[in-house]
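Case study: Tautomerase family protein.
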Amino acid sequence: MPLITVNLPENAFSAEQKQDFAKRATDTLLSLEGMQNNHLAENLSWVQFQTFKQEDFYLAGHPVDKPHYRIEVRVFQGTMTAAIKEKLTAQLTDLVLNTEATDHNLLNAARVWIMIEEVPDGNWGGAGKIYRIKDLMQMMQHEKKSNI
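Here is what the predicted structure looks like once written out:
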């Protein structure tokens, strides 16, 4: 049930690039969580793009000419190890640079920030109810077994 919010300048990605990015980001996160090919998990994974005008972004008080990105990932608390967070950060950064068709170097990678927020159990609500991690994991495991 991850939520991914991509903050980026207007026109940084085309509509087709956004759709491809959303699919790949979802696949990346679900794969790292062990939920790849789980249709229920896919259907509960949101990706939202929030755009801003390039001229509204400043670095150290100065306007910048290259797009900068902030990707916020919200997951249930305790569902990602430090190693998974490292992999997710690297893979989402690569995904941005691949989408841009930009060189993979430190300067370009530094334009991509990943913020991972772990939502404490009992604080995730949807469809008019609070979801608990144990109930969600049970639903996901049932879906995973029925896909085998």
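For the exam, be able to explain this: The radius of gyration is 17 Å.
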